[in-house]
Here is the input.
Amino acid sequence: MLAVSFILVFVAVLLTVYFVIPAAVRWAHEMNKKRAKDFARRMDRSMIAEDIQNVQKAFVIAPFAGAAIGFFLMPDPNFRMAGIFGGGLLGLALPKFYASHLMKQRKGQFDGQLIDALMIMSSSLRGGMSLVQSMEAVFEEMPNPIHHEFGIVLGENKMGVSLDEALNRLYKRMLSPPLQQMISAILLSRETGGNLPLIFSRIVGTIRERRKIEENLMVLTVQGKLQALVMSGLPVGFFFLVNSTNPKYFNVMMTTDLGRMLTMTALGLWLVGTFLIIKISSFND
Here is the structure.
């Protein structure tokens, strides 16, 4: 009877390894590819093709890499499944943060180039060019990302989209306050007239003053961010240091109901404290 049970268990494990695990891996791979395609479809007008390809690769690779890292970081067999599960979840979440970082970086580069673009447009308008021609000058002389975005605006305008609508779409992609000032000035000048080069010069001054204020705020919030980094890292560093010197020290926190409850409570309070410190040390436009 024992031999039959052993054979049945062996067959069940063999069938699971042969059929279920490959099917699960294929399903996860297809789901990650689908998420990557959905992301690319939403972001194809806000990011360049190279960044989209990198994010697609991250969507596909990160969950498997996270699960593998979680497996190797948990030497105790009792916690390996938790490590795999946690690493996989982290791998699912990280590509979104990576994509948000790329978009934020791209918008920051766009805002940084907007001063030069306004100066080129102002000089072109003073030289007798039309508004569209001045935008073409920006497209020809400026690098990405403003080269790419102004190219989209000019391409849409050539395809029959009104310039007002194309500029509004540009703002929806970038969501930049200086860009909103530029677009509002252009739309008002097209309806009521006005000295657009002079308005652009004033917008450039406003952007420079705004940038100085933001830099001062960044300097003032560095201390809070450094404090958040140190205070958030101390508990984690203390755990790994003690666990490396005395692996049985935290057994009571993992093997008893009271210990697990206290561990989850401490983890929750740690996350809340870290979140609050980061929010207090940050500022929004």
The two ends are 72 Å apart (CA to CA). The mean pLDDT is 77. DSSP finds ten helices and no strands in the chain. Residues 15 and 21 are 9 Å apart (CA to CA).
